[in-house]
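>> Question from a student workshop board

For tomorrow's exercise we were told to take the sequence and the ligand below, predict the bound structure, and bring the output to class. My setup keeps failing. Could a helper post the expected result so I can at least see what it should look like? The ligand is ZDP.
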Amino acid sequence: MKFNFVKWQACGNDFVLINAFHNEDVSEIRDNAEKICDRHFGAGADGVIFILPSEIADFRMQIINSDGSEAEMCGNGIRCFAKAVHELGLTDKCKFTVETGAGIIIPEIQPDGTVHVDMGEPVLEGDKIPVAGFGSNKVISENITVDGQNYKMTCVSMGNPHCVVFVDDINAVELEKIGPKFETHSAFPRKTNTEFVEVKNDSYVRMRVWERGAGITLACGTGSCATGVACMLNNLTQKKINVELDGGVLTIEWADNNHIYMTGPATKVYEAVWVD
Ligand code: ZDP
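>> Workshop helper replied:
Here is what the output should look like for this input. Compare the format with yours to find the bug.
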């Protein structure tokens, strides 16, 4: 394989971006995503993102996790995507539409270089997230037993599934041990991303994530949106909060039109050619 790629990161969530806007046959690269993401034998990334043409939007984004599985959406990734398509000269617009597995997402590049994203509406029905055992009911502060221990979970889909758990002390969470147990728990038919959240005050929370298909990452955009929604559903915060992640801070707002808005940075790291 030989292809050009650009490495981007957003709050330390890092991605290999591939411009396939004029060349859609990227199946071989897609099949090698796990190898590309490997931090010792590859380029090293939390996922591979493809810039593709769309019939219903300005662009289509496809994201493959570092284990080779496909995700519906990627919040940090779409901020990288937005700045990358601009930089690659694929559009002059600062605000455009992107088709994803979570529907049409609308990023807008701000004058200060951050990206403000309309992430659409959160999905709260249990069977649509999906979480087993709740029918179409919401899953707000419900019991779950994981590895013999009891937790309260609030579940949200931002196109991809999230399970949010509030804790008193974020530093005491053994993410590496408990994360994979949540990910593959039978309550989650499509597996789950899991966010552990310590509420600091009504506009500031600290979050650490175990991502489905990627493990511990320094940040998760869709997970920050799900965290905001879970905080608000449990009356723990206001409608606009800052979420502090290991790799940075994101601002999340649940607006009156029921859409979630996420604002945060995205930075290009380097351009390269894969030759292996
Ligand atoms: O849903 C999943 O399988 C996630 N691992 C996708 C990636 C989510 C991400 N961290 C984000 O920022 O939303 C990239």
